[in-house]
Design a protein that fits this description.
heterodimer, A: mainly alpha, three-stranded antiparallel beta sheet, 15 helices, 5 strands, about 70% helix, B: mainly alpha, two-stranded antiparallel ribbon, 2 strands, about 75% helix
């Protein structure tokens, strides 16, 4: 920030400093949650955190990387399956969740070599095929017992309260790490590269962005994140069933959360996950109608509010809760107190 | 089932895949949009035909007189109401819109018709199980042959339409450059809506043969989308007939896969698709973008 310039670049604003403090306090409160929250609320929060993980990862892929995937359930399912497989081999269950996610990340490398050549809708369906293949292959493993599925039996060695607390903390930690990774990524050079690719792949390449490496980094990150979410889902609900873990409904949920919250915004998927969580809480028992409303809402947002709720709020009121973008302040004489600030290339 | 019979069945099954693939590729070629509701729309058509056959006791082939124009109208509405608008927000948004639409269609069908599996086979007399005797204990289903013949007629008809009619030329020109055609007096909005109608009419036809060939339920659409997409990508280059080749390769892989292992049908089909993708990377280098496009965009 130069003093004599008429234009200054600002990252942290008073608002974002305030929000950062609130986030820190909230994190400490949530971490202390098991001390004062009821079991029911802890379970609910665990599910919410997993939704946030999924939404944030899908947003990283689609909103920043321009890769719309209809097959992230491939990694969600792999995370669950590999955790069972590792645990059957004698790995301590919670360690197995983390190792499974990393292993899914390793698997995502050869997959990325195939699918990252596809673009737009071709990538979307290509990933869907990958998810189908993963489901069929996992079904071949005898320990899964076809569609019957298998439980993470090793979890039975913990008592129920202990298991709930560990799963809760682990989910909170996973969510926080994922948010931090995306936050740091966006503020780094990588973040600018990713958004340049999203906006125009050819143009980005022409100014020296290493397109394929950058896309691969984000693809593998999203694979690990979704696999970890799958493992945590398994730890929460204990039974792995291929048809539900590899089901297309996960893509529908991720698309809903990101599209409604605000695609390509840092805060969007968090808001979307909270909205999705509340809708499920209130209307989840409505069965098919609930899915119809989810699909219809996603459709309507894509038509009339493609930036989502947060996109609307941000464009309308120029708020940036967290400093992932830049603010260019024009200190033009005509403006009152030099306050005509406008955020550009922010998200 | 002998291997020879499996081979012939695989080729004939390819006819169905070409039918479901051609509308998908056609739409991508003209509007650059991959319609993720493609499979679910085929199921909508199948249910439409089923209602007419079951409630009003008309022959399903006769019911096409109602269902195909209805699908054409749906195509028009789809283009004007959803695709055109969402495409304005960037190339990624139509993917999300059509995915949302697919979820809505599937679940509305489920709400209306429940989870029962259905088939049109009982409404066409003995067609579904009649067969030609090839000698040596091999039989080939008449329905499979009919499907294949209709697929060839459909692809051939589409090709003739695109090559020789003024509207066909306008569609090809719009696919090439929608802004420039406006300069020479073509209404590209109209042309796109016509193209979407044609695509949906092929979807209606595919829905008929799907429902005759096998059982379907409200959620059968996503697999049809995947098969159509795979056939389109495998067939890849050059012309509409590439789609038929892709369908045949997919059908062959699936029937031979099923011959080897009970899970082999789906795995072998997906496997061939992935192999083709890998092969393309190492043979041609550049991204796959435009494989489908070249089919209709250039000299279809």
């Amino acid at each position: 920030v130069t003093a004599d310039s008429r234009i200054s670049i600002q990252r942290w604003t008073n608002l974002s400093i305030g929000v950062a403090i609130v986030v820190a306090v909230l994190f400490v409160l949530l971490a202390a949650g098991p001390a004062f929250l009821s079991e029911n609320i802890l379970d609910r929060l665990t599910v919410l955190f997993i939704y946030v993980c999924l939404a944030v990862m899908w947003n990283a892929l689609a909103g920043y990387g321009g890769m719309i995937s209809a097959g992230q359930q491939a990694f969600f399912g792999l995370g669950g399956y590999l955790a069972i497989r590792l645990s059957e081999w004698g790995v301590e269950p919670y360690l197995a969740l983390v190792l499974a996610a990393l292993l899914a990340g390793v698997f995502s490398l050869p997959i990325s070599a195939i699918v990252l050549r596809l673009r737009g809708g071709e990538f979307a369906i290509g990933m869907w095929v990958i998810a189908e293949v993963a489901r069929l292959l996992v079904n071949l493993d005898p320990i899964i017992q076809g569609d019957t599925g298998r439980s993470l039996i090793a979890l039975a060695s913990f008592d129920a309260a202990e298991r709930r607390d560990i799963t809760y903390w682990m989910t909170l930690a996973s969510m926080s790490v994922m948010l931090a990774v995306i936050f740091v990524m966006l503020r780094s050079r990588l973040g600018s590269s990713i958004q340049a690719i999203r906006d125009n792949e050819e143009a980005a390449a022409s100014v020296g962005v290493r397109v394929s490496v950058t896309k691969r980094i984000i693809f593998v990150t999203a694979a690990i994140g979704c696999a970890l979410a799958g493992g945590l889902w398994l730890a929460t609900f204990t039974t792995f069933q291929p048809r539900s873990f590899f089901g297309i409904q996960w893509s529908a949920y991720m698309i809903f959360m990101v599209l409604v919250g605000g695609i390509g915004r840092f805060e969007g998927p968090i808001l979307g996950a909270i909205i999705f969580f509340l809708i499920e809480l209130w209307f989840g028992t409505a069965g098919v109608w609930y899915l119809i409303v989810l699909g219809l809402t996603a459709l309507l947002f894509s038509l009339f509010l493609p930036g989502g709720i947060w996109g609307y709020v941000e464009d309308r009121f120029h708020v940036l809760l967290l400093p992932v973008g830049y603010r260019v302040r024009m200190t033009a004489p005509s403006a009152r107190g030099g306050d005509t600030s406008q955020s550009i290339a922010a998200n | 089932m002998s291997v020879i019979t499996a081979l012939i069945e695989g080729v004939l099954l390819g006819g169905y895949y070409a039918m479901i693939a051609c509308g998908l590729s056609f739409m991508f070629g003209v509007m650059k949009i991959i319609n993720l509701a493609h499979g679910s729309l085929a199921i909508v058509a199948a249910f439409g035909l089923w209602i007419i056959a079951d409630r009003f006791e008309y022959d399903p082939f006769l019911a096409l007189i109602v269902v195909l124009p209805a699908m054409g109208c749906i195509g028009w509405l789809l283009q004007r109401g959803i695709l055109e608008r969402s495409a304005r927000s960037g190339e990624l948004i139509p993917i999300l819109s059509t995915f949302g639409l697919a979820i809505v269609l599937e679940n509305v069908l489920f709400e209306c018709f429940g989870a029962d599996i259905r088939s049109l086979a009982p409404y066409v007399g003995s067609l579904a199980y009649d067969s030609f005797d090839l000698g040596g204990g091999s039989y080939i289903g008449k329905l499979a042959v009919l499907t294949f013949v209709v697929a060839i007629l459909l692809l051939g008809g589409l090709q003739l339409f695109l090559t020789y009619t003024p509207l066909g030329r306008q569609i090809r020109a719009t696919a090439e450059d929608p802004d420039t055609v406006e300069l020479v007096g073509v209404n590209s909005r109209f042309v796109n809506a016509v193209a979407a109608s044609i695509a949906l009419i092929t979807v209606g036809l595919a829905g008929l043969f799907l429902a005759l060939r096998t059982n379907f339920d409200p959620y059968s659409g996503s697999l049809q989308l995947i098969f159509g997409f795979e056939a389109g990508v495998i067939g890849g280059t050059g012309s509409l007939w590439g789609t038929l080749a892709g369908g045949i390769i997919l059908g062959l892989a699936q029937t031979l896969g099923a011959h080897i292992h009970p899970q082999g049908f789906l795995l072998a089909g997906h496997g061939v698709f992935l192999l083709v993708l890998v092969g393309r990377i190492y043979i041609s280098g550049p991204a796959l973008h435009g494989f489908l496009k070249s089919k209709f965009g250039g000299g279809a």
